[in-house]
Each structure stands twice: as structure tokens, then as C-alpha cells.
Amino acid sequence: MKGTIMRPAHQRPFIAALAAAAALSLAGCGAVAQSASSGTASPSGVATTSPATSSTATASPTTSGGKPSSSAPAPAVLATYTFPDGRLSFKYPADWKVELFTGDVKPSTSRTATVFDASGTKQVTVYSGLIADGVTHPVTRTVFESAPVPGLGEQPAPAAHYSFYVDRMDSNSTYRMHLTAGAPQAGKGAALDGIIRIGKEVLVAEAQFIEKPFANDAAAKAWLASTEGRAIKGLLLSVTYR
Predict the structure, then answer these.
(1) How many Cα neighbours within 13 Å face the side chain of 185?
(2) Which pTM value belongs to this model?
(3) CA dihedral (51, 240, 44, 60) positive or negative
(4) How many other β-carbons are positioned within 10 Å of the β-carbon of residue 237?
(5) What is the tens place of the pLDDT at every residue in 145-189?
């Protein structure tokens, strides 16, 4: 209150009561404000984040070409998928799902794990087997990112890398995010087959983009920063062979 208002003596009990009520009201408001601002902070790790607060691939899906969200989502809860051999595995968002296809020959010589996001969109395939086909042709490449895969570090050289790049041939642009044998080189070269050697078998792991998923390189880089882009990148970097 600004200033002091003089009141007759017989009105003091009434004023004191009003002051007490106001104090109780302000105290109640303070308690509500404190409660509203004391929510549990998101943990830095992914293992303890609750599913209710985790965020998965909702921004700029590969099938829509939409703009990625600018908000910073909480880390996603991760699950681990292990192939039947017990040696090859990878991590993926827990609300996504994995379906395994095996060849008809018994014992099977090939296994393909297909990873779908929460909406049912196919996002990644991970293949392991005795054989894999590779087709190549001349391209001009722009590399956005490439990094060694820690869980494949003990496998035969060249070292397996997670790579995201675009190959151009004539007027066509092919965007790819997959595992590569060594880091892809920018400039003129040949298309990569993405075949990685693991033990006595081979591995091929790649994001499943639709045809022309990005309008340009800037859109591709923006998608990479989105929740979905980070989830697929994380999956590829998590591939492990023991």
C-alpha cells in the first residue's frame, strides 16, 4: 500500500482481519506458483527419462518434407534390438518397432531388421548375411556428416562410419544416410555400396528415404537437426557387433 490512511480506533480489528486475510491469500498464491515451477527436470541421460516426457520423431518426417520443429525435445527413451545370433545389435526409440525377416534357407544366411517409427513409417533397415549386392556409378558428392561407429571399431578395415551426404549425377540428387566403409570423400567419385564386413558376414544399414526427400541441401541439414534426423543418426551410430 502506498502512504498511510488514518482510521478511527474502533475500526482497527476490522483492518487487522483484512490484512490477515490478504497475507493468507498471498501465501496461497506463492505456494501455487512454487508448485507450478517445480516440475521434474529432464535427465541428461536417456535411460531414466519417462515415456510420458520423451519426444520421438515428430518433426520433419522423411515422408513429408515438412519443416523441423525449432523446440528442443527431451531425450528419447531407447530400446535395444539384438539379432538372433546375439552379436549384432542397435538402439532405437522405445516407441518405434522392429520387424525381423529371415531368408527361406535353413539355417538362414540373411536377416533384415526393418525399423518403423511410432506412426508406422519405415525408417531404417539393418541387414546381415553372407552376401550383399553392390552397384556403383559416377557421382559428385557433398558430405554433410561422417563419424566412426564405436561398436564396429574392432571389425576389419576400412572402419565403419555413419555418413550423411548427397550424390549428384546429371540433374538428379540422391540423399543417403547409412553406414559406409570408411569416410565418404567429397567431390567426384563413385556411388557407395554401403557394405561393412563383420566377422564372416557383411552388414548393410541405411535410412529409408522416399524419392526426393529434401528440396535442397539446406532442407537436408535442417532435417538432420530435427528429432527424427537425430533418432536415425543415433540408431546408425549405435550399431554394435561383439
Answers:
(1) 6
(2) 0.70
(3) negative
(4) 19
(5) 999 999 999 999 999 999 999 999 999 999 999 999 999 999 999
